[in-house]
Amino acid sequence: ADADVAHDEL
Amino acid sequence: MNVFRLSGDVSHLLAILILLMKIWKTRSCAGISGKSQILFALVYTTRYLDLFTSFISPYNTAMKVFFIASSYATIYLIYLKFKATYDRNHDTFRMEFLVLPVLVLAFVVNHDFTPLEILWTFSIYLESVAILPQLFMVSKTGQAETITSHYLFALGMYRALYIVNWVYRYYFEGFYDLIAIIAGVVQTVLYCDFFYLYVTKVLKGKQLTLPA
């Protein structure tokens, strides 16, 4: 889902 | 972490190394836009503030530190060490035309109205257009050194590979981040014209020149 996006990418 | 994401990161790393090597070996930053490099430093600085708040993996931390450090090193080389070779007369794109609209957009369209999240969003939007001063410089001079075009190709491939990574993550993990995806697509589209010239000219051994 788009909510609570964790920024695990660079 | 999937193979597309890893290839994208490697491509990004390669782009930065190509640029640093080019400047260091030729003792010259001719043809390189200092303004794009300032924008990239701003991108990494505002995005990787989460180094202080969240830990993801040693890989993640190492890459973030490298991207921040190398972007400031590049600025140092352009504006201090090799400033005599910096082509400032051709580097005339106005940074505020990118930074200000992107800042406003980050305040309006974001996942969460918190300082760190707004800065992250700002960095994602800014990254998508940060290469414009460099592309503007190439179009102004009508040419680019072959090594500079390799740099641009690797940098463009990085976001193109990230798009494939997002498609993969959507199908296999049900994960997607619309802000990153839309900005990433914009970023990649900006490289399309360059990709065409790279394939039709540079890969055939010719220098990258633009039609008059």
TrEMBL record, chain B:
Superkingdom classification of source: Eukaryota
Transmembrane segments: 62-80, 92-113, 119-139, 151-172, 178-199
Membrane topology term: Multi-pass membrane protein
Localization (cell): Endoplasmic reticulum membrane
Pfam families linked: ER_lumen_recept
Keywords noted in UniProt: Endoplasmic reticulum, ER-Golgi transport, Membrane, Protein transport, Receptor, Transmembrane, Transmembrane helix, Transport
Major location category of this protein: endoplasmic reticulum
The family this protein is said to belong to: Belongs to the ERD2 family.
Record-given protein name: ER lumen protein-retaining receptor
Organism of derivation: Priapulus caudatus (Priapulid worm)
Lineage: Eukaryota, Metazoa, Ecdysozoa, Scalidophora, Priapulida
